[in-house]
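Suppose you are handed a protein chain with no further information: no name, no annotation, nothing but its sequence. What can you learn? This example shows the usual starting point.
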Amino acid sequence: MSIIGHKKTQDFFTRVIDCGILSHAYAFIGSDHIGKETLAIWIASLLLKTVPEKVSRHLDVRIIRRQYDEKNNRFKRDIAVAEMRDLLRFASQSSFQPHGWKVVIIVEAERLNVEAGNAILKILEEPPERTVFFLLYQNTAAILPTIHSRVQTINLARVSEQELSAGLLDLEFALEDIQAIIPYAQGLPGQAITWLREPDIFIAFKNNAVALAGLMSASITQRFGAVEPWFVAAKDEGGVDYVVERLEEWRQVFYSWLNSQTSPISLNQNGAILDELEKTILALRRNAHPPLAVQSFLLSFP
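A reasonable first move is to predict its three-dimensional structure. Written in structure tokens, the prediction is:
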């Protein structure tokens, strides 16, 4: 497993582990694809004295994430309290290694429902010995304040183009392919790797960017019409999560325009739209009405 960027964070954890001053809980905050889970697994490998590839199967590790709903062929919307029961047992047990560490990684911690959040809070209030928690999330506004106040926060910044390019070369991707995706990846290693491994996804992103650029000069009626198919598809493709995924695709396009000389909107307009986009995604995850929330967001376009 290779980590691209985040050298200061790696150095920090190497020091605190060596000095024996590890906190009981950390929050890694950053965009999707920035490397939150990769970093947490790497730290776990240091604590457990194993290689990162073996961490997910280690007896002293629990990785909690949304479960897949086989019946509806989609991921569940939330992390439910039922998934906390095993964690409560795990937290109360000793590690399998004598005087060893236990590690808990919660992916998309903002997806904890109220009951699951309260279960985690109870553990964090009285943390078990030699157990470290890593809560991974994008936005502090989406997490219970009582949980956020009990973790040490580490914000993960986007990786520079130079670091990203060097890291991708180390993974033996072709230089020509790297140069093609770097301007669009916006410092997200996971996104870059996905595009390089699955070029069709990158082509779809570029097509999406062209369509979104067209909406910048479209009428309100045309903009509303462009997103109407989202709400039809959402009925069979995951409900509000499907709509959020479409907005997250747009977010990546808007970020790619920040440093682009061919952006169809100004830097100030782009920043204002991104602010509204984050508010819209958060509102949708808090059960806002999808068509109304998205239509309101479209009104922020110039």
